[in-house]
């Protein structure tokens, strides 16, 4: 069974006003004192956010516990400096982000201007183990049509700079400003994948391999496929749902490759359009069906995703968990829907953040 690990980016906020707070450096100093060479929290581009990372595991129950434990660590460390943590993919309240210290981040700011300065977004990255680069690229080629439904399930960023953006995942719109972000072509093998990465780096537009921001890529540091399309989820159960589906996609793609079934030759333009639709709609409206490439209700599309990976989910023991988690998500709405419902009840974006803080801490 393939191992899975999850990285979550979390927002640091003032517990009273709900406004983002640039205290990551202080929080991470406490983490360094507590954990030394094995920290559970890491810095990100902006000082208003932290990143957590679980250990690799093959069991989704263990993954759920790891996600909750990492969030609890972030809550504890932030609380020690008078801040709170919210699993929100963008800040509902206005913010002027503060770039993290370091030479690389300064270079990012100099090269990319407002794209870097405004980039206070929190994503969720799922790592799924693969046996080789050959298997990994075969997987990347075959999961492309199914990444937009994963984005729809995770959509948790309707607000931007104090306004409703009109999108369920505005994070993905902001993230798409990076020159290497988004869907990619079919590569056909690791040689072409690595050649493509080299060509991007040879333009000297990207600073390094860390800026290969494809929706899914081979990890630089681990023998994994890294699926990067998702918002950080408000509910940790949704994080586990996304992770289980991601492993199902990798398993299914690897089996198709071994059976000699070719990837779908879907254009990057069509994939980008489907991703835009998922960003706009989340699970509250229609999506683009990744088999028929026609409009379909969100529930139809995400259930088609489950059907696509059903055999893999059954073999890993994740099928019941996925079906139950998906039913809960569709019944209550995704993160974006919960945020908008909080605003409708209270009329205050501060209350949206407060509720997110409570959910993250609990």
TrEMBL record:
One of its GO terms (molecular function) is glutamate-cysteine ligase activity. One of its GO terms (biological process) is modified amino acid biosynthetic process. Its EC number is 6.3.2.2. It comes from the Bacteria. Coiled coil: none annotated. It catalyses: L-cysteine + L-glutamate + ATP = gamma-L-glutamyl-L-cysteine + ADP + phosphate + H(+). Keywords: ATP-binding, Ligase, Nucleotide-binding. ATP-dependent carboxylate-amine ligase which exhibits weak glutamate--cysteine ligase activity. Belongs to the glutamate--cysteine ligase type 2 family. YbdK subfamily. This is Putative glutamate--cysteine ligase 2. It comes from Streptomyces mobaraensis.
């Amino acid at each position: 069974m393939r191992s899975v690990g999850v990285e979550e980016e979390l927002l640091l906020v003032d517990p009273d006003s709900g406004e983002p707070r640039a205290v990551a450096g202080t929080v991470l100093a406490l983490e360094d004192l507590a954990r030394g060479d094995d920290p559970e929290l890491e810095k990100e581009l902006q000082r208003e956010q932290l990143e957590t990372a679980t250990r690799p595991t093959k069991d989704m129950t263990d993954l759920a516990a790891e996600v909750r434990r990492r969030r609890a660590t972030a809550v504890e460390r932030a609380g020690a400096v008078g801040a709170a943590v919210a699993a929100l993919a963008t800040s509902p309240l206005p913010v002027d982000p503060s770039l993290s210290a370091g030479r690389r981040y300064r270079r990012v700011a100099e090269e990319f201007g407002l794209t870097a300065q405004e980039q206070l977004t929190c994503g969720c990255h799922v790592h799924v183990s693969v046996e080789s680069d050959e298997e990994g690229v075969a997987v990347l080629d075959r999961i492309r049509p199914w990444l937009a439904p994963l984005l729809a399930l995770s959509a948790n960023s309707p607000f931007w700079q104090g306004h409703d953006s009109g999108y369920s995942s505005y994070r993905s719109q902001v993230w798409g400003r990076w020159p290497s972000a988004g869907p990619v072509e079919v590569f056909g093998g690791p040689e072409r994948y690595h050649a493509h990465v080299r060509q991007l780096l040879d333009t000297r537009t990207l600073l390094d391999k860390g800026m290969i921001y494809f929706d899914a890529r081979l990890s630089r540091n681990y023998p994994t496929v890294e699926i990067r399309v998702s918002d950080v989820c408000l509910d940790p159960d949704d994080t586990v749902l996304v992770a289980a589906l991601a492993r199902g996609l990798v398993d299914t793609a690897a089996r198709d490759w071994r059976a000699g079934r070719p990837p779908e030759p879907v254009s990057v333009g069509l994939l980008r359009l489907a991703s835009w639709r998922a960003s706009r709609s989340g699970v509250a409206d229609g999506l683009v069906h990744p088999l028929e490439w026609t409009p379909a209700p969100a529930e139809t599309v995400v259930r088609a995703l489950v059907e696509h990976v059903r055999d893999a989910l059954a073999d890993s023991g994740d099928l019941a968990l996925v079906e139950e988690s998906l039913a809960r998500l569709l019944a209550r709405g995704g993160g974006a829907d919960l945020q908008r419902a909080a605003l409708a009840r209270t009329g205050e974006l501060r209350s949206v953040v407060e509720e997110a803080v409570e959910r993250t801490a609990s």
